[in-house]
Amino acid sequence: MLKGPDVDFPTGTPLQPSSPPSDADWESRKQVIKKIDAPLPPRSQPTDADWESRKQVIKQIYITESRTLDYLVEEMKERGFDQTEKQFRKRLAHWNLKKNNTSSGRATDPSGSGKRTRRDAGTTRPKASSDRKSEPLTALQMKIFLVLFPMRIELDDLGSLLLSADTAMRFYLACRESTWIWDIREPTGSREQTDVLQIWPALEDICQDIQTLYQSELWNRLQRRFRDLLAYSQQVFGRRPSDRNLVLCFSRICLLLSEIRDPTETTDSNPKRLPTFLVLRCFLIGLCQSMWQQPQQDHLLPIIKALLAILQGSPMEFKGMLARLYRKVMRMVQDSLGRDHLVTLTLSASLDKQLGNIIYAQSQGKERPSFDRAALIKLVIKTELQHHTQETSGQFQRLLLVQEILNALTTGDRYPGDVQHVAMILRSMALLSFRNATSPLVRLRAARAAARSSEVIAKMYLGVPGNDDYSRRTSIVYLDTAITTLLAQNGCEITALHVTKVHCKWLKEYNRNNGRADPETREEFERRAEEAEARKRSIVRRIPVDTEAPARVPRARGKLKATTKSESTKRLRKENRNEKKMFASFLLEIARWESFNTGSK
């Protein structure tokens, strides 16, 4: 396992983040910062005796076990013999150790025909040691031992990307003895207790270098700095994540690395770009998930901000996978702080907003739908009904979310198969909120949401060709329910008038196209049409007409000419003052939530 430079950290009580450090504290750590920032000392050249003492081990790994030269370098580095690949190649040539050579102990054909003979029983190739835990994992082991994602999710797309990344990154991300994720709950034992405040300057420099190298597309140097980040993280990951300094330190790392942006977000120009881009974010998600042992409110907000940046900056084809991971983190927050906590509600609203943007972009044709949209919609609204039984500030956000999703899916004349499912859930949520809510703002939004969902369901029943008479009757019943709900709430006259006009139009079309129905059915629907017309006239009378509006004075280049409004213009119907007040309070509520979400991101 890689280790950082040997630095002698001064012992003593660590600085408390609540009090700013004094000049004496900075002077006491001046030498430490110089040692961390200083370049690594050059490797000492090994003597011939050092090489000869390790000749049998090198021969065993490279010749007998038929390992690659890269693997030999990494294996000897773990054994404390850190030399470059060029030095190993030069020493192997000096020893004349080559594969398929007689000096390696391989059996060859003495006739020189080039065909290999069968090995004797005593010269069989020994199997590789099974207790070497640090070797890279295979494709099957990657899915089993993928330590970044302990939850049970689908790993097809993620596993293929990680397997396409470089071997060195896979080695450090998916190694079985990666204690920075795997052994986080175990006791620290004899691990070095490094002060977080002293190790932070080196971590901050590495993160800044990673950002610069990523923007410059210097992939080899980026991988080396990424290894350094893991090595420095290894020194402090042994500690339990209950330390506030440790949590804040890694939260700052998440914020630094989450600012990395891919300028093109495509794999056509450089196939290495996207795997490296995703591996960095997977590392951050695993990093954050390892700190949820004892979460506190002051620890959660920086990590939430980092996770939101990860989700927003990821390419579209990976947002479905990252959203599932984000939902897992949201459950952790909910279990720790409670379902109705303000941080939990904000986190849920932010995630739902991101998923709504994904669905809207796909419904508009701006993005290629690379995952099942219906499955994502079910993911969004899967647990909304059970969270919606009590009146909280989350009720308001969930109503807006489902209504936005419904509006995005019903853009134009296209009605996918999952629209009915969303509209049904929205209608159930709206009617439940309308009955239980005490706030007039929530009741107003619930009434409008119920009318909107009922109108969509009725349009689906009426607009699909081949529907029977029962479906058309059902659509009219849904509209009756919507109008009754709207009229029960003061301030919804304008919306009720719109739904009533649609209701009258469909009733007339039904009566005109249903001439072969029995007399009782025809009389019933004619009576419904008359009642709808009477209801429309009564709603129009309930809407006040503002005749005291001042005359509009248009601007002109010359003189300003005051024009008087005609009688027909003066009698134009205006919106109800009560509805205006409620709509203004609705806008203020949205602005307050948006400002809170922006501050938490």
Automatic annotation (TrEMBL):
Superkingdom of the source species: Eukaryota
Signal sequence coordinates: none
Domain annotation Clr5: ranges: 48-99
Annotated InterPro entries: Clr5_dom
Region (Disordered): 1-52, 99-135, 548-576
Amino acid composition bias (Basic and acidic residues), ranges on this chain: 26-37, 567-576
Entry protein name: Clr5 domain-containing protein
Organism encoding this protein: Microdochium trichocladiopsis
